[in-house]
Fold this protein.
Amino acid sequence: MTEAIIEAKNVSKNLGSGAGQVTALKDVNLSLRGGELTMLMGPSGSGKTTLLSVLGCMLAPTSGMVQVCGISSEGANVEQLATLRREHVGFVFQQYHLFPTLTAAENVQLALDLRGERGTKAKSRSFDALAKLGLAQKILSYPRELSGGEQQRVAIARAIVSDPSAILADEPTAALDGVNGQAIMRILASIAKASGRGVLVVTHDSRLTSFANRIIYIEDGRLVGEEIVNAGTPKLLTAASGR
Amino acid sequence: MPLDLTLASRNLFHDRLRFIATTVGIVFSVVLVMVQMGLYLGFGQMVTKMIDHASTDLWVVRKGTNCFEDPSLLDATDQKAILKVAGIASATPLVIGFADWRLPSGELTPVFVVGSDLANGSLQPWNIVAGSLRSLSAHDAVAVDRTYDKRLGISGIGAKAEIRGRAVHVAALTDGIRSFTTTPYVFVDLKFARGYTGAPRDKASYFLVNLKPDADVAAVRRDLLANISGVEVLTSAQFRDRSREFWLFGTGAGAALFAGALLGVIVGTVIVAQTLYSSTKDHLDEFATLRAMGSSNRYVYRVIIYQALINAAVGFCFAALIGFAVVAITTKSALPVVITPALMAAVFGLTVAMCIGSALVAILGVVRIDPVMVFTR
Protein backbone atom coordinates (compact mmCIF):
# COMPACT_ATOMS: atom_id res chain seq x y z
CA MET A 1 0.00 0.00 0.00
CA THR A 2 1.37 3.42 -0.96
CA GLU A 3 1.93 6.21 1.53
CA ALA A 4 -0.93 8.55 2.47
CA ILE A 5 -0.32 12.09 1.19
CA ILE A 6 -3.41 13.55 2.81
CA GLU A 7 -5.21 11.89 5.63
CA ALA A 8 -8.50 12.88 7.25
CA LYS A 9 -9.33 11.36 10.61
CA ASN A 10 -12.84 11.64 12.06
CA VAL A 11 -13.36 14.96 10.30
CA SER A 12 -16.59 16.83 10.82
CA LYS A 13 -17.35 20.30 9.53
CA ASN A 14 -20.18 22.60 10.47
CA LEU A 15 -21.01 25.50 8.20
CA GLY A 16 -22.98 28.59 9.16
CA SER A 17 -24.06 29.47 12.63
CA GLY A 18 -27.10 29.53 14.89
CA ALA A 19 -30.31 28.15 13.48
CA GLY A 20 -28.80 28.11 9.98
CA GLN A 21 -25.92 25.85 10.94
CA VAL A 22 -25.54 22.67 8.93
CA THR A 23 -23.18 19.74 9.38
CA ALA A 24 -21.53 19.47 5.98
CA LEU A 25 -19.15 16.63 6.89
CA LYS A 26 -19.77 13.93 9.44
CA ASP A 27 -16.96 11.86 10.87
CA VAL A 28 -15.08 11.41 7.61
CA ASN A 29 -12.03 9.17 7.43
CA LEU A 30 -10.08 9.23 4.21
CA SER A 31 -6.58 8.72 2.89
CA LEU A 32 -5.33 10.16 -0.36
CA ARG A 33 -2.49 7.95 -1.48
CA GLY A 34 0.42 8.78 -3.75
CA GLY A 35 0.34 7.38 -7.27
CA GLU A 36 -3.43 7.08 -7.23
CA LEU A 37 -6.20 9.06 -8.84
CA THR A 38 -9.02 9.07 -6.34
CA MET A 39 -12.41 10.19 -7.49
CA LEU A 40 -14.89 11.69 -5.07
CA MET A 41 -18.45 11.32 -6.27
CA GLY A 42 -21.79 12.21 -4.88
CA PRO A 43 -24.92 14.19 -5.57
CA SER A 44 -25.09 18.00 -5.34
CA GLY A 45 -24.93 19.22 -1.76
CA SER A 46 -23.43 15.96 -0.52
CA GLY A 47 -20.30 17.72 0.83
CA LYS A 48 -17.82 16.98 -1.98
CA THR A 49 -16.49 20.53 -2.25
CA THR A 50 -16.47 21.00 1.52
CA LEU A 51 -14.40 17.84 1.88
CA LEU A 52 -12.06 19.02 -0.87
CA SER A 53 -11.70 22.36 0.94
CA VAL A 54 -10.92 20.67 4.23
CA LEU A 55 -8.45 18.23 2.67
CA GLY A 56 -6.82 21.17 0.84
CA CYS A 57 -6.49 23.15 4.07
CA MET A 58 -8.76 25.93 2.88
CA LEU A 59 -11.20 25.14 5.64
CA ALA A 60 -10.31 23.97 9.12
CA PRO A 61 -12.40 21.01 10.34
CA THR A 62 -14.78 21.62 13.23
CA SER A 63 -13.53 18.39 14.75
CA GLY A 64 -11.14 15.69 13.72
CA MET A 65 -7.77 16.09 12.11
CA VAL A 66 -6.25 16.52 8.65
CA GLN A 67 -2.63 15.67 7.94
CA VAL A 68 -0.86 16.81 4.79
CA CYS A 69 2.43 15.02 4.15
CA GLY A 70 2.50 14.12 7.82
CA ILE A 71 1.89 17.69 8.99
CA SER A 72 -1.26 18.21 11.01
CA SER A 73 -3.37 21.22 10.20
CA GLU A 74 -4.86 21.14 13.69
CA GLY A 75 -4.69 24.54 15.37
CA ALA A 76 -3.07 26.14 12.34
CA ASN A 77 -3.98 29.76 11.68
CA VAL A 78 -4.96 31.17 8.30
CA GLU A 79 -1.39 31.93 7.26
CA GLN A 80 -0.11 28.52 8.36
CA LEU A 81 -2.86 26.83 6.37
CA ALA A 82 -1.86 28.94 3.36
CA THR A 83 1.73 27.76 3.78
CA LEU A 84 0.58 24.11 3.84
CA ARG A 85 -1.36 24.65 0.62
CA ARG A 86 1.51 26.49 -1.03
CA GLU A 87 4.05 23.82 -0.16
CA HIS A 88 2.10 20.62 -0.64
CA VAL A 89 -1.14 21.07 -2.58
CA GLY A 90 -1.97 22.06 -6.14
CA PHE A 91 -5.53 23.01 -7.06
CA VAL A 92 -7.46 22.70 -10.28
CA PHE A 93 -10.79 24.49 -10.42
CA GLN A 94 -13.91 23.98 -12.47
CA GLN A 95 -13.75 27.55 -13.86
CA TYR A 96 -9.94 27.39 -14.27
CA HIS A 97 -9.47 30.67 -12.35
CA LEU A 98 -6.61 31.83 -14.52
CA PHE A 99 -5.53 35.43 -14.27
CA PRO A 100 -6.87 37.11 -17.41
CA THR A 101 -4.14 39.77 -17.53
CA LEU A 102 -1.28 37.27 -17.34
CA THR A 103 -0.01 35.04 -20.12
CA ALA A 104 -0.16 31.26 -19.84
CA ALA A 105 3.48 31.17 -18.76
CA GLU A 106 2.97 33.92 -16.19
CA ASN A 107 -0.10 32.16 -14.81
CA VAL A 108 1.98 29.05 -14.24
CA GLN A 109 4.94 31.01 -12.92
CA LEU A 110 2.67 32.63 -10.35
CA ALA A 111 2.56 29.39 -8.35
CA LEU A 112 6.36 29.54 -8.10
CA ASP A 113 6.37 33.26 -7.37
CA LEU A 114 4.17 32.63 -4.32
CA ARG A 115 6.89 30.32 -3.06
CA GLY A 116 9.56 32.92 -3.61
CA GLU A 117 10.96 31.17 -6.70
CA ARG A 118 11.74 33.85 -9.27
CA GLY A 119 13.99 34.61 -12.19
CA THR A 120 14.96 32.57 -15.21
CA LYS A 121 14.80 29.26 -13.35
CA ALA A 122 11.15 29.85 -12.46
CA LYS A 123 10.42 30.94 -16.00
CA SER A 124 12.08 27.84 -17.38
CA ARG A 125 10.12 25.58 -15.01
CA SER A 126 6.85 27.16 -16.06
CA PHE A 127 7.73 26.71 -19.75
CA ASP A 128 8.57 23.05 -19.07
CA ALA A 129 5.29 22.48 -17.25
CA LEU A 130 3.34 23.95 -20.14
CA ALA A 131 5.36 21.96 -22.65
CA LYS A 132 4.58 18.74 -20.80
CA LEU A 133 0.91 19.51 -21.24
CA GLY A 134 1.32 20.21 -24.95
CA LEU A 135 1.13 23.99 -24.67
CA ALA A 136 4.67 24.92 -25.73
CA GLN A 137 3.25 27.06 -28.52
CA LYS A 138 0.87 28.86 -26.19
CA ILE A 139 3.15 30.18 -23.49
CA LEU A 140 2.62 33.80 -24.49
CA SER A 141 -1.11 33.46 -25.02
CA TYR A 142 -3.57 35.10 -22.70
CA PRO A 143 -6.42 32.99 -21.26
CA ARG A 144 -8.94 34.70 -23.56
CA GLU A 145 -6.93 33.40 -26.54
CA LEU A 146 -7.13 29.79 -25.35
CA SER A 147 -9.90 27.21 -25.63
CA GLY A 148 -11.52 25.83 -22.48
CA GLY A 149 -9.44 22.67 -22.67
CA GLU A 150 -6.26 24.66 -23.11
CA GLN A 151 -7.14 26.90 -20.21
CA GLN A 152 -7.68 23.87 -18.00
CA ARG A 153 -4.33 22.46 -19.10
CA VAL A 154 -2.69 25.77 -18.12
CA ALA A 155 -4.45 25.46 -14.75
CA ILE A 156 -3.06 21.93 -14.37
CA ALA A 157 0.41 23.14 -15.29
CA ARG A 158 0.04 25.81 -12.62
CA ALA A 159 -1.03 23.14 -10.12
CA ILE A 160 1.92 20.85 -10.80
CA VAL A 161 4.73 23.32 -11.50
CA SER A 162 5.77 23.64 -7.87
CA ASP A 163 5.85 19.86 -7.58
CA PRO A 164 3.20 19.47 -4.85
CA SER A 165 2.48 16.09 -3.30
CA ALA A 166 -1.25 16.33 -3.90
CA ILE A 167 -3.44 17.67 -6.66
CA LEU A 168 -7.02 18.46 -5.73
CA ALA A 169 -9.35 19.06 -8.65
CA ASP A 170 -12.88 20.34 -8.28
CA GLU A 171 -15.07 19.31 -11.22
CA PRO A 172 -12.18 19.90 -13.64
CA THR A 173 -14.16 18.73 -16.65
CA ALA A 174 -17.53 20.27 -15.88
CA ALA A 175 -16.97 23.27 -18.12
CA LEU A 176 -15.56 21.19 -20.99
CA ASP A 177 -17.01 19.07 -23.76
CA GLY A 178 -16.63 15.30 -23.64
CA VAL A 179 -13.45 15.09 -25.71
CA ASN A 180 -11.66 17.79 -23.74
CA GLY A 181 -12.98 16.35 -20.49
CA GLN A 182 -11.50 12.96 -21.33
CA ALA A 183 -8.21 14.60 -22.28
CA ILE A 184 -8.02 16.44 -18.98
CA MET A 185 -8.76 13.26 -17.04
CA ARG A 186 -6.05 11.39 -18.97
CA ILE A 187 -3.58 14.11 -17.96
CA LEU A 188 -4.60 13.97 -14.30
CA ALA A 189 -4.39 10.15 -14.29
CA SER A 190 -0.95 10.25 -15.84
CA ILE A 191 0.21 12.83 -13.28
CA ALA A 192 -0.82 10.46 -10.50
CA LYS A 193 0.75 7.44 -12.14
CA ALA A 194 3.97 8.96 -13.39
CA SER A 195 4.90 11.26 -10.54
CA GLY A 196 3.54 9.41 -7.55
CA ARG A 197 1.37 12.34 -6.55
CA GLY A 198 -1.97 11.83 -4.92
CA VAL A 199 -4.70 13.18 -7.16
CA LEU A 200 -8.23 13.73 -5.90
CA VAL A 201 -10.90 14.60 -8.45
CA VAL A 202 -14.34 15.71 -7.40
CA THR A 203 -16.90 14.94 -10.07
CA HIS A 204 -20.39 13.73 -10.61
CA ASP A 205 -19.71 12.60 -14.16
CA SER A 206 -19.89 8.82 -14.08
CA ARG A 207 -18.35 8.62 -17.58
CA LEU A 208 -15.00 9.49 -16.07
CA THR A 209 -14.76 6.67 -13.56
CA SER A 210 -12.52 4.63 -15.86
CA PHE A 211 -9.67 7.02 -15.08
CA ALA A 212 -9.86 6.44 -11.33
CA ASN A 213 -7.88 3.99 -9.27
CA ARG A 214 -10.33 4.46 -6.46
CA ILE A 215 -13.80 5.97 -6.22
CA ILE A 216 -15.21 7.29 -2.99
CA TYR A 217 -18.89 8.03 -2.66
CA ILE A 218 -20.24 10.72 -0.38
CA GLU A 219 -23.80 11.47 0.65
CA ASP A 220 -25.09 13.95 3.22
CA GLY A 221 -21.56 14.59 4.42
CA ARG A 222 -20.73 10.92 5.03
CA LEU A 223 -18.54 8.61 2.99
CA VAL A 224 -20.86 5.83 2.00
CA GLY A 225 -18.80 3.67 -0.28
CA GLU A 226 -15.45 3.02 -1.85
CA GLU A 227 -14.68 1.25 -5.06
CA ILE A 228 -11.26 0.05 -6.04
CA VAL A 229 -11.44 0.15 -9.82
CA ASN A 230 -10.22 -3.02 -11.59
CA ALA A 231 -9.46 -4.54 -8.24
CA GLY A 232 -12.72 -5.76 -6.89
CA THR A 233 -16.23 -4.70 -6.14
CA PRO A 234 -17.43 -1.64 -4.25
CA LYS A 235 -17.62 -1.99 -0.52
CA LEU A 236 -19.62 0.02 1.99
CA LEU A 237 -17.55 2.08 4.42
CA THR A 238 -19.59 1.16 7.41
CA ALA A 239 -16.76 1.05 9.93
CA ALA A 240 -14.46 3.61 8.32
CA SER A 241 -17.08 6.31 8.05
CA GLY A 242 -18.42 5.73 11.48
CA ARG A 243 -21.90 4.79 10.38
CA MET B 1 9.75 42.87 -13.58
CA PRO B 2 8.56 40.89 -10.52
CA LEU B 3 5.40 38.95 -11.21
CA ASP B 4 3.43 40.62 -8.43
CA LEU B 5 4.28 44.00 -9.96
CA THR B 6 3.32 42.67 -13.40
CA LEU B 7 -0.01 41.48 -12.04
CA ALA B 8 -0.60 44.82 -10.31
CA SER B 9 0.19 46.89 -13.38
CA ARG B 10 -1.76 44.68 -15.79
CA ASN B 11 -4.82 44.71 -13.54
CA LEU B 12 -4.52 48.46 -13.31
CA PHE B 13 -4.13 49.09 -17.02
CA HIS B 14 -6.67 46.41 -17.94
CA ASP B 15 -9.58 48.70 -17.11
CA ARG B 16 -8.37 51.77 -18.97
CA LEU B 17 -11.37 53.91 -18.25
CA ARG B 18 -11.04 53.41 -14.52
CA PHE B 19 -7.30 53.96 -14.71
CA ILE B 20 -7.80 57.24 -16.59
CA ALA B 21 -10.45 58.33 -14.08
CA THR B 22 -8.12 57.53 -11.19
CA THR B 23 -5.22 59.32 -12.84
CA VAL B 24 -7.36 62.40 -13.51
CA GLY B 25 -8.42 62.37 -9.86
CA ILE B 26 -4.85 62.11 -8.64
CA VAL B 27 -3.65 64.77 -11.08
CA PHE B 28 -6.40 67.12 -9.97
CA SER B 29 -5.59 66.50 -6.35
CA VAL B 30 -1.81 66.79 -6.72
CA VAL B 31 -2.02 69.89 -8.91
CA LEU B 32 -4.30 71.48 -6.33
CA VAL B 33 -1.85 70.69 -3.54
CA MET B 34 1.14 71.73 -5.63
CA VAL B 35 -0.39 75.04 -6.72
CA GLN B 36 -1.67 75.89 -3.25
CA MET B 37 1.70 75.20 -1.70
CA GLY B 38 3.41 76.93 -4.66
CA LEU B 39 1.23 79.96 -4.00
CA TYR B 40 2.18 79.75 -0.35
CA LEU B 41 5.87 79.80 -1.28
CA GLY B 42 5.30 82.48 -3.91
CA PHE B 43 3.34 84.59 -1.48
CA GLY B 44 6.07 84.10 1.09
CA GLN B 45 8.63 85.37 -1.40
CA MET B 46 6.51 88.25 -2.63
CA VAL B 47 5.82 89.66 0.82
CA THR B 48 9.53 89.83 1.58
CA LYS B 49 10.71 91.02 -1.82
CA MET B 50 11.86 94.42 -0.53
CA ILE B 51 13.57 92.88 2.49
CA ASP B 52 15.30 90.33 0.26
CA HIS B 53 16.65 93.07 -2.02
CA ALA B 54 17.87 95.38 0.72
CA SER B 55 21.59 95.09 1.32
CA THR B 56 21.69 95.59 5.05
CA ASP B 57 22.84 93.71 8.11
CA LEU B 58 20.21 94.98 10.52
CA TRP B 59 16.83 96.68 10.34
CA VAL B 60 15.92 99.20 13.02
CA VAL B 61 12.13 99.22 13.09
CA ARG B 62 9.41 100.73 15.29
CA LYS B 63 8.52 98.32 18.07
CA GLY B 64 5.66 96.05 17.00
CA THR B 65 6.28 96.44 13.27
CA ASN B 66 4.74 93.43 11.56
CA CYS B 67 5.88 93.80 7.99
CA PHE B 68 7.72 95.98 5.50
CA GLU B 69 4.52 97.84 4.59
CA ASP B 70 3.87 98.81 8.23
CA PRO B 71 3.20 102.58 8.40
CA SER B 72 4.92 103.10 11.81
CA LEU B 73 7.55 105.82 11.85
CA LEU B 74 10.81 106.35 13.72
CA ASP B 75 12.45 109.61 14.73
CA ALA B 76 15.01 110.63 12.14
CA THR B 77 17.20 111.77 14.99
CA ASP B 78 17.65 108.14 15.99
CA GLN B 79 20.13 107.93 13.13
CA LYS B 80 22.71 109.77 15.19
CA ALA B 81 22.20 107.49 18.18
CA ILE B 82 22.56 104.47 15.92
CA LEU B 83 25.82 105.69 14.45
CA LYS B 84 27.25 106.14 17.95
CA VAL B 85 27.07 102.40 18.61
CA ALA B 86 30.39 100.66 18.18
CA GLY B 87 30.62 98.31 15.20
CA ILE B 88 28.18 100.20 12.95
CA ALA B 89 29.47 101.38 9.57
CA SER B 90 26.35 103.13 8.28
CA ALA B 91 22.68 103.74 9.07
CA THR B 92 20.50 104.74 6.15
CA PRO B 93 16.93 105.94 6.58
CA LEU B 94 14.20 104.44 4.44
CA VAL B 95 10.86 106.13 3.94
CA ILE B 96 7.87 104.19 2.70
CA GLY B 97 4.19 104.81 2.45
CA PHE B 98 1.05 104.65 0.38
CA ALA B 99 0.20 107.60 -1.85
CA ASP B 100 -2.16 108.55 -4.64
CA TRP B 101 -0.85 108.59 -8.19
CA ARG B 102 -2.73 110.84 -10.55
CA LEU B 103 -2.76 109.67 -14.14
CA PRO B 104 -2.61 112.20 -17.00
CA SER B 105 -6.31 111.46 -17.46
CA GLY B 106 -6.96 112.76 -13.95
CA GLU B 107 -7.79 109.37 -12.44
CA LEU B 108 -6.25 108.43 -9.10
CA THR B 109 -4.68 105.09 -8.26
CA PRO B 110 -2.86 104.07 -5.10
CA VAL B 111 0.90 103.44 -5.20
CA PHE B 112 3.45 102.37 -2.62
CA VAL B 113 6.38 104.77 -2.44
CA VAL B 114 9.81 103.43 -1.51
CA GLY B 115 12.21 106.26 -0.80
CA SER B 116 15.80 105.24 -0.22
CA ASP B 117 19.23 106.75 -0.42
CA LEU B 118 19.95 105.65 -3.95
CA ALA B 119 23.60 106.64 -3.70
CA ASN B 120 24.09 104.47 -0.65
CA GLY B 121 22.72 101.40 -2.35
CA SER B 122 20.91 99.92 0.62
CA LEU B 123 17.61 99.44 -1.26
CA GLN B 124 17.61 100.30 -4.94
CA PRO B 125 15.22 99.32 -7.70
CA TRP B 126 16.50 96.25 -9.53
CA ASN B 127 16.00 94.82 -13.00
CA ILE B 128 16.11 98.28 -14.57
CA VAL B 129 15.23 97.84 -18.25
CA ALA B 130 15.00 101.49 -19.31
CA GLY B 131 16.52 104.66 -17.89
CA SER B 132 19.12 104.50 -15.15
CA LEU B 133 19.54 104.51 -11.43
CA ARG B 134 21.53 107.73 -11.64
CA SER B 135 18.70 109.54 -13.34
CA LEU B 136 16.53 108.94 -10.25
CA SER B 137 18.50 111.45 -8.24
CA ALA B 138 16.93 114.20 -10.33
CA HIS B 139 14.10 116.17 -8.80
CA ASP B 140 10.65 114.55 -9.34
CA ALA B 141 12.24 111.43 -10.95
CA VAL B 142 10.63 108.06 -10.17
CA ALA B 143 11.13 104.43 -11.17
CA VAL B 144 8.13 102.18 -11.76
CA ASP B 145 7.66 98.67 -13.07
CA ARG B 146 6.68 98.39 -16.70
CA THR B 147 4.00 95.82 -15.93
CA TYR B 148 1.99 98.69 -14.44
CA ASP B 149 2.18 100.90 -17.55
CA LYS B 150 -1.55 100.86 -18.15
CA ARG B 151 -2.45 101.10 -14.51
CA LEU B 152 -0.28 104.17 -14.05
CA GLY B 153 -1.15 105.63 -17.44
CA ILE B 154 2.45 105.90 -18.57
CA SER B 155 3.92 105.26 -21.97
CA GLY B 156 7.59 104.88 -21.05
CA ILE B 157 10.53 106.95 -19.95
CA GLY B 158 9.65 110.62 -19.58
CA ALA B 159 5.97 109.98 -18.90
CA LYS B 160 4.47 112.45 -16.47
CA ALA B 161 2.09 112.05 -13.55
CA GLU B 162 1.49 113.37 -10.02
CA ILE B 163 1.98 111.91 -6.57
CA ARG B 164 0.16 113.74 -3.78
CA GLY B 165 -0.20 116.67 -6.13
CA ARG B 166 3.53 116.82 -6.93
CA ALA B 167 4.59 116.38 -10.51
CA VAL B 168 6.78 113.37 -11.24
CA HIS B 169 8.31 111.93 -14.37
CA VAL B 170 9.32 108.37 -15.06
CA ALA B 171 13.11 108.19 -15.18
CA ALA B 172 13.54 104.43 -14.98
CA LEU B 173 11.52 101.34 -15.75
CA THR B 174 11.99 98.02 -13.99
CA ASP B 175 10.81 94.54 -14.92
CA GLY B 176 9.24 92.10 -12.50
CA ILE B 177 8.97 94.21 -9.34
CA ARG B 178 5.39 93.24 -8.74
CA SER B 179 3.51 93.80 -5.53
CA PHE B 180 1.36 91.07 -4.01
CA THR B 181 -1.07 93.82 -2.93
CA THR B 182 -1.34 94.82 -6.61
CA THR B 183 -0.41 98.37 -5.54
CA PRO B 184 2.55 99.36 -7.73
CA TYR B 185 5.87 100.18 -6.08
CA VAL B 186 7.30 103.60 -6.96
CA PHE B 187 11.00 104.09 -6.19
CA VAL B 188 12.14 107.61 -5.43
CA ASP B 189 15.19 109.23 -3.93
CA LEU B 190 15.03 109.59 -0.17
CA LYS B 191 15.35 113.37 -0.52
CA PHE B 192 11.87 113.60 -2.10
CA ALA B 193 10.16 110.62 -0.51
CA ARG B 194 8.66 112.38 2.49
CA GLY B 195 6.95 114.83 0.17
CA TYR B 196 5.26 111.97 -1.67
CA THR B 197 4.27 109.93 1.39
CA GLY B 198 3.33 112.79 3.64
CA ALA B 199 5.79 111.66 6.30
CA PRO B 200 7.08 114.48 8.55
CA ARG B 201 10.57 115.70 7.77
CA ASP B 202 11.89 114.39 11.10
CA LYS B 203 10.59 110.88 10.58
CA ALA B 204 11.76 107.74 8.79
CA SER B 205 10.18 104.32 8.38
CA TYR B 206 13.32 102.26 8.93
CA PHE B 207 17.02 102.55 9.39
CA LEU B 208 19.08 100.11 7.39
CA VAL B 209 22.22 99.42 9.38
CA ASN B 210 25.42 98.01 7.94
CA LEU B 211 28.07 96.71 10.29
CA LYS B 212 31.81 96.95 10.20
CA PRO B 213 33.47 93.68 9.13
CA ASP B 214 34.60 92.71 12.62
CA ALA B 215 31.42 93.77 14.42
CA ASP B 216 29.69 91.44 16.86
CA VAL B 217 26.06 91.38 15.67
CA ALA B 218 24.65 90.35 19.04
CA ALA B 219 26.57 93.09 20.85
CA VAL B 220 25.50 95.72 18.33
CA ARG B 221 21.87 94.73 18.67
CA ARG B 222 22.11 94.82 22.44
CA ASP B 223 23.70 98.29 22.40
CA LEU B 224 21.15 99.63 19.92
CA LEU B 225 18.27 98.49 22.08
CA ALA B 226 19.94 99.98 25.13
CA ASN B 227 20.46 103.37 23.48
CA ILE B 228 17.23 103.83 21.52
CA SER B 229 13.80 103.38 22.98
CA GLY B 230 10.69 102.13 21.20
CA VAL B 231 12.53 100.20 18.50
CA GLU B 232 13.39 96.66 17.61
CA VAL B 233 16.54 95.55 15.86
CA LEU B 234 16.05 92.69 13.44
CA THR B 235 18.29 90.81 11.10
CA SER B 236 17.00 90.52 7.56
CA ALA B 237 16.10 86.89 8.25
CA GLN B 238 14.10 87.85 11.33
CA PHE B 239 12.28 90.65 9.53
CA ARG B 240 11.56 88.27 6.66
CA ASP B 241 10.13 85.64 9.00
CA ARG B 242 8.04 88.21 10.81
CA SER B 243 6.64 89.60 7.58
CA ARG B 244 5.78 86.16 6.30
CA GLU B 245 4.15 85.19 9.55
CA PHE B 246 2.07 88.35 9.50
CA TRP B 247 0.90 88.13 5.92
CA LEU B 248 0.51 84.36 5.79
CA PHE B 249 -0.93 83.64 9.21
CA GLY B 250 -1.89 87.01 10.66
CA THR B 251 -4.20 87.66 7.72
CA GLY B 252 -5.39 84.07 7.28
CA ALA B 253 -4.06 83.92 3.72
CA GLY B 254 -1.68 81.08 4.59
CA ALA B 255 -4.40 79.15 6.38
CA ALA B 256 -6.61 79.47 3.31
CA LEU B 257 -3.81 78.14 1.11
CA PHE B 258 -3.19 75.24 3.50
CA ALA B 259 -6.92 74.54 3.61
CA GLY B 260 -6.93 74.36 -0.19
CA ALA B 261 -4.00 71.94 -0.10
CA LEU B 262 -5.74 69.83 2.53
CA LEU B 263 -8.83 69.75 0.37
CA GLY B 264 -6.66 68.46 -2.46
CA VAL B 265 -5.31 65.68 -0.27
CA ILE B 266 -8.80 64.70 0.86
CA VAL B 267 -10.19 64.71 -2.68
CA GLY B 268 -7.23 62.67 -3.93
CA THR B 269 -7.45 60.17 -1.10
CA VAL B 270 -11.17 59.65 -1.60
CA ILE B 271 -10.82 59.23 -5.36
CA VAL B 272 -7.92 56.79 -5.15
CA ALA B 273 -9.50 54.88 -2.28
CA GLN B 274 -12.77 54.57 -4.13
CA THR B 275 -11.24 53.42 -7.40
CA LEU B 276 -8.74 51.06 -5.78
CA TYR B 277 -11.50 49.58 -3.66
CA SER B 278 -13.78 49.00 -6.62
CA SER B 279 -10.86 47.62 -8.65
CA THR B 280 -10.02 45.23 -5.83
CA LYS B 281 -13.66 44.18 -5.58
CA ASP B 282 -13.68 43.49 -9.32
CA HIS B 283 -10.60 41.31 -8.96
CA LEU B 284 -11.79 39.56 -5.82
CA ASP B 285 -11.89 36.20 -7.61
CA GLU B 286 -8.23 36.60 -8.49
CA PHE B 287 -7.25 37.50 -4.95
CA ALA B 288 -9.27 34.51 -3.70
CA THR B 289 -7.44 32.31 -6.23
CA LEU B 290 -4.12 33.64 -4.97
CA ARG B 291 -5.16 32.79 -1.42
CA ALA B 292 -6.37 29.35 -2.51
CA MET B 293 -3.01 28.75 -4.14
CA GLY B 294 -1.42 29.48 -0.80
CA SER B 295 -0.30 33.04 -1.18
CA SER B 296 0.42 34.91 2.00
CA ASN B 297 -1.71 37.91 2.86
CA ARG B 298 1.43 39.98 2.42
CA TYR B 299 1.65 38.97 -1.24
CA VAL B 300 -1.93 40.09 -1.84
CA TYR B 301 -1.32 43.39 -0.04
CA ARG B 302 1.80 43.91 -2.10
CA VAL B 303 -0.16 43.63 -5.33
CA ILE B 304 -2.66 46.24 -4.09
CA ILE B 305 0.07 48.56 -2.83
CA TYR B 306 1.93 48.27 -6.14
CA GLN B 307 -1.26 49.39 -7.84
CA ALA B 308 -1.43 52.37 -5.52
CA LEU B 309 2.22 53.22 -6.19
CA ILE B 310 1.75 53.01 -9.95
CA ASN B 311 -1.27 55.30 -9.63
CA ALA B 312 0.82 57.68 -7.55
CA ALA B 313 3.77 57.71 -9.95
CA VAL B 314 1.69 58.21 -13.09
CA GLY B 315 -0.56 60.82 -11.48
CA PHE B 316 2.39 62.69 -10.05
CA CYS B 317 4.24 62.83 -13.38
CA PHE B 318 1.28 64.46 -15.12
CA ALA B 319 0.69 66.76 -12.16
CA ALA B 320 4.35 67.81 -12.16
CA LEU B 321 4.15 68.73 -15.85
CA ILE B 322 1.06 70.84 -15.18
CA GLY B 323 2.80 72.33 -12.15
CA PHE B 324 5.79 73.41 -14.26
CA ALA B 325 3.42 74.96 -16.79
CA VAL B 326 1.66 76.89 -14.03
CA VAL B 327 5.03 78.10 -12.74
CA ALA B 328 5.98 79.31 -16.22
CA ILE B 329 2.65 81.05 -16.74
CA THR B 330 2.65 82.82 -13.37
CA THR B 331 6.32 83.79 -13.19
CA LYS B 332 5.64 87.44 -13.95
CA SER B 333 2.27 87.65 -12.26
CA ALA B 334 1.52 89.52 -9.05
CA LEU B 335 1.49 86.22 -7.21
CA PRO B 336 3.76 83.67 -8.88
CA VAL B 337 3.50 79.98 -8.08
CA VAL B 338 6.89 78.85 -6.82
CA ILE B 339 7.72 75.15 -6.95
CA THR B 340 11.05 74.32 -5.42
CA PRO B 341 12.76 70.90 -5.58
CA ALA B 342 11.94 70.48 -1.89
CA LEU B 343 8.25 71.20 -2.54
CA MET B 344 8.31 68.78 -5.47
CA ALA B 345 9.82 66.05 -3.27
CA ALA B 346 7.35 66.77 -0.48
CA VAL B 347 4.37 66.62 -2.84
CA PHE B 348 5.66 63.36 -4.31
CA GLY B 349 5.95 61.93 -0.80
CA LEU B 350 2.46 63.15 -0.04
CA THR B 351 1.12 61.59 -3.25
CA VAL B 352 2.68 58.24 -2.37
CA ALA B 353 1.36 58.46 1.19
CA MET B 354 -2.08 59.42 -0.09
CA CYS B 355 -2.20 56.49 -2.51
CA ILE B 356 -0.89 53.96 0.00
CA GLY B 357 -3.34 55.29 2.58
CA SER B 358 -6.08 54.78 0.03
CA ALA B 359 -4.83 51.25 -0.64
CA LEU B 360 -5.50 50.38 2.98
CA VAL B 361 -9.21 50.70 2.26
CA ALA B 362 -8.84 48.20 -0.58
CA ILE B 363 -6.74 45.94 1.63
CA LEU B 364 -9.53 45.91 4.20
CA GLY B 365 -11.73 44.58 1.41
CA VAL B 366 -9.57 41.49 0.93
CA VAL B 367 -8.16 41.01 4.40
CA ARG B 368 -10.74 38.37 5.29
CA ILE B 369 -11.18 36.95 1.83
CA ASP B 370 -12.25 33.31 1.93
CA PRO B 371 -10.28 31.16 -0.54
CA VAL B 372 -13.18 28.71 -0.62
CA MET B 373 -15.09 31.20 -2.78
CA VAL B 374 -13.07 29.94 -5.76
CA PHE B 375 -15.23 26.82 -5.71
CA THR B 376 -18.46 28.73 -5.89
CA ARG B 377 -17.63 31.16 -8.71
User: Anything to note?
Assistant: The domain at 34-51+76-228 of chain A is CATH 3.40.50.300 (Rossmann fold).
